[in-house]
Design brief:
This protein is of the alpha/beta class and about 350 residues long. It is built from 17 helices and 5 strands. The model has no long low-confidence stretch (mean pLDDT about 85).
Length: about 350
């Protein structure tokens, strides 16, 4: 039963397999089964995995009732998946992934880091699209080999919060003791040869003591002396300068950490990576634009170099079109772009 294709399962079999779990577990798995079997989808485990972020093995074991982890945690993630779908339909989040020049470049960086198993820093301004690319890469390589996790800022227990976030990504119960959590994380990451840590610049909001504990854990348990590659993504932060400043203030021996890092820092210059062809591909998710509109939207994305600004504009325009029950047009999109830029200028004037 554990290897039964999704489309060959029945609702009765799924509910029978999950009868010992909480009622909401059975309900969410049946909902997911119906989604996968819908005529417009017809998804196998790998395809469903890419959409939900749950590994094929977890999905298969979940439908069979043989999963050894926290079923409620999986059920919550499935519920969040359907909530996101609902929000996309309601608020225009047409966010199908569109590969761009930046995508291809970062995918190459991720693959190289996986192979050489070093620590790789990536730095850039905000809203370039780093997170979007990292999440998509993880979804496409989520058979246990790739793990994506974010740091939390302003924490009084930075490492503890990071371990909790990592445990959540690995479907490990966050209520167990830290020592047990760390042991389960090590076990769950046996097949992992790349971990992507986003928002790593937030480490500088922690105390020196917490930063030191995080760097120790990063070196011994996460990178594990070359067991896997580690990509660290930072926004508006020179991490090497931050590490040097931390060394001087804390007396921490940063040599072992720096010795595991690549000397080459990947520094993204967003305006250079935004090309008209990519902008057109992004806009085509929503409607077929005219040449002039594509040129103007390309300039919008290049200045100030935020592909995220373009996506926000398109989603705002889509939401407006949905509310007015009209089709998206160049006029509507460009009007929305002017409104978005006007609001940004207004906000800057108030800050």
């Amino acid at each position: 039963m554990s290897s039964t294709p999704i489309v060959d399962r029945t609702e009765l079999e799924i509910r029978k397999a999950l009868e010992d779990q909480a009622p909401e577990v059975g309900n969410t798995f049946v909902q997911l089964w119906k989604y996968a079997c819908a005529p417009e989808n017809r998804l196998g485990y790998a395809q469903l995995s890419q959409r939900t972020g749950l590994s094929p093995s977890i999905l298969s074991q979940g439908f069979s009732g043989t999963y050894k982890g926290d079923f409620l945690a999986i059920s919550e993630r499935i519920s969040k998946f359907f909530w996101r779908l609902e929000q996309q339909q309601k608020y225009g989040g047409i966010r199908q992934f569109v590969p761009t020049v930046l995508t291809r470049y970062l995918f190459d960086v991720f693959e190289k880091t996986r192979v050489i198993r070093r620590m790789q820093l990536i730095e850039s301004p905000e809203q370039v699209g780093k997170t979007r690319v990292a999440v998509e890469y993880t979804h496409q390589n989520n058979s246990g080999r790739t793990v994506y996790v974010q740091l939390s800022g302003g924490s009084t227990d930075g490492l503890g919060d990071f371990i909790a976030n990592l445990a959540s990504q690995l479907n490990i119960a966050t209520t167990i003791q830290v020592r047990e959590k760390k042991a389960r994380i090590r076990e769950s990451m046996e097949a992992c040869d790349l971990i992507i840590i986003d928002e790593v610049h937030l480490v500088w909001t922690w105390t020196d003591k917490q930063v030191a504990r995080f760097f120790d854990y990063l070196r011994t348990d996460i990178h594990s002396n070359g067991k896997r590659g580690v990509v660290m993504i930072a926004t508006n932060s020179n991490m090497l300068k931050g590490i040097e400043k931390f060394r001087r203030s804390s007396g921490y021996n940063t040599g072992q950490l720096l010795g595991r890092m690549r000397n080459h820092i990947v520094s993204l210059h967003p305006a250079d990576d935004i090309i008209e062809e990519d902008v057109r591909s992004l806009v085509l998710r929503y409607y077929k634009p005219g040449k002039v509109a594509v040129e103007k939207l390309t300039q919008l994305a290049r200045n100030p170099g935020h592909i995220g600004l373009l996506e926000d504009t398109l989603n705002e325009a889509w939401t407006e079109a949905q509310a007015r029950k009209v089709k998206m047009t160049d006029e509507l999109v460009l009007q929305t772009a002017r409104q978005v830029l006007g609001q940004i200028k207004k906000n800057r004037g108030q800050s």
